[in-house]
Design a protein that fits this description.
It holds the Pfam family START. This protein is an alpha+beta fold. The protein is about 25% helix and about 35% strand. The strands form 2 sheets. Strands 3, 4, 5, 6, 7, 8, 9, 10, 11 and 12 form a 10-stranded mixed β-sheet that branches. A two-stranded antiparallel ribbon has the order 1-2. The longest helix has 23 residues, at about 25-50. It is globular.
Length: about 250
């Protein structure tokens, strides 16, 4: 989709991490994010579709343990990772309350140093900065990501949260890169949370990232180890979250 109001920004005298940055109106930014996030949502829904044949869509199961499935699919030179599991006696809203609480994100992702909103475009559409520090695992060490987050409820009640990086020029215009950080690209990620009959839910989490900068391939392709830890932490937080009737 063409963005008709993007204007190259004047470069400051300080070293620029990106060769150029774009100044963009809020309306154009909103329209771009709505367009880009729609594609991400459809990819997430396709990845969560259990009716698809396991061999036809390219997913290969890495682990299947204690009700948690982690699989991956090659996408160009990188892999997309997917995790799926059932949360008993946890409603979709309980889970999303925990997974989508930016101020609580560090409780389930120990590598995260900072997460904060840069801009709210609509009630369900935001721009967020994620920062990972010196002590993070190699895949995330000293990385930052400028991402959009879109939250949707589908007609059948399925909750979808789509998160992906903005193009680097737009991101640089919104938030200049810090000199001590490497700006990675979160190519696609998000949650699909489907309600089950007994007020439980099935959760699908999908992520594909380009961490930027050279890393041994094994660091990127062993992302499933990190997923296992995230899932365990999220399970504990979601099960401790009060249900709607208890609030």
């Amino acid at each position: 989709m063409a963005i008709d109001t993007i204007i190259p920004a004047t470069m400051s005298s300080s070293p620029a991490p990106c060769s150029r940055s774009w100044s963009i109106s809020e309306d154009s930014l909103r329209r771009y994010v709505q367009f880009a996030s729609e594609s991400c949502i459809q990819e997430l829904l396709a990845a969560s579709d259990t009716n698809r044949g396991k061999d036809s869509d390219g997913w290969k199961i890495l682990t299947l343990d204690n009700g948690v499935e982690i699989s991956k699919r090659r996408s160009g030179s990188l892999h997309t990772f997917r995790s799926r599991w059932i949360l008993r006696s946890v409603s979709p809203q309980q889970f999303i309350t925990v997974a989508n609480a930016i101020d609580a994100a560090k409780q389930w992702d120990s590598d995260l140093v900072e997460a904060r909103y840069i801009k709210d475009l609509e009630d369900n559409l935001s721009i967020i900065r994620l920062r990972f520090g010196d002590n993070s695992k190699p895949l995330f060490r000293n990385r930052e990501f400028i991402v959009y987050e879109r939250r949707e409820t589908m007609e059948d009640g399925t909750l979808v949260v789509a998160v992906a990086s903005l193009p680097k020029e737009i991101a640089a215009g919104l938030h200049p890169k810090q000199s001590n950080a490497i700006r990675g690209l979160l190519l696609q990620s998000g949650w699909v949370v489907e309600k089950l009959e007994d007020d439980s839910c099935v959760v699908t989490y999908v992520v594909q990232l380009d961490p930027a900068g050279w890393l041994p391939k094994c660091f990127v392709n062993r992302f499933n180890t990190k997923l296992v830890m995230i899932i365990e932490d999220l399970k504990k937080l979601a099960q401790a979250c009060p249900s709607e009737g208890e609030i």
